[in-house]
Amino acid sequence: MVRKITAWEKIYGERGKVFEEVDERVKKFTNSFMTWKCCRVLDIGCGNGRHCIYLAKEGHHVIGLDVSAHGLKIAKKWMLEEKLIVHLVLGDMAFQPFKNLSFDFLICMYTIYHAPIKKIMKTINENYRILKENGVGLFTLLSTNDQHYGKGKEIEKNTFLQPERVLGTETQHFQYHHYFNEEETRQVFSKFEIIRLKEFKIMEKNTLRFYWEIIIKQKK
Ligand SMILES: C[S@@+](CC[C@H](N)C(=O)[O-])C[C@H]1O[C@@H](n2cnc3c(N)ncnc32)[C@H](O)[C@@H]1O
Q1: Residue 79 region, left (φ>0) first, then alpha (ψ -120 to 50), else beta?
Q2: Predicted TM-score of the model (pTM)
Q3: Binding site membership of 164 for ligand 1 (Cβ less than 6 Å)
Q4: Is 33 in the pocket of ligand 1 (CB under 6 A)?
Q5: 212 lines ligand 1 (CB under 6 A)
Q6: Cα-flanking dihedrals φ and ψ of residue 14, to 5°?
Q7: CATH number of the domain at 7-15+23-174+184-206, out of 3.30.70.2740, 3.40.50.150, 3.40.1280.10, 3.40.50.720?
């Protein structure tokens, strides 16, 4: 298979491990919903593995999926250092190589918006297929209130080709960014029950970024 070299593949290749701290939303999600041991959880766009490591340490059965071979290599090295077992899968979020109804939980942090809307919808349909009944998922999405909304080349409504940023610093590598308002967020996840939808802000270097946090439940 010919694999496209993505912005993130280049970023991990140049910088190595870029994310170390566990996102506070993942900690809260784990404490609130993953209340038994050995939950089967998929981390979509796991990158260099910070959340896979955290979830494995919490006693869960973790699978990480990412399109970047470099990201997964860094994740694998980190896991071996920590003596943890996590299954890492090289693949695209829109084609998830997993059986129907095979996960109790999903997390997809700062990833799903790196695509045009058709691919985002394909990914959400895949998530619907692989999540068990009553399974719960956590996603973060870019908000149209973010200051980078509208910048770069608009390739379709609300999707822009923009330089990727790493912890607030602009790189030379370009990536699609789809920005969501509340209405579109509800619409794209309408197959699921929406348990929580909240806009949040984080400081990345000196820039305030706006995202959505959405927690959904499978309702087959
Ligand atoms: C901003 S990083 C976030 C990484 C990780 N979720 C975290 O919070 O540390 C975005 C990640 O999404 C991955 N990614 C982008 N497009 C993808 C796709 N189509 N399928 C799978 N992973 C993808 C990138 O390789 C990168 O690791």
Answers
A1: alpha
A2: 0.97
A3: no
A4: no
A5: no
A6: -80, -40
A7: 3.40.50.150
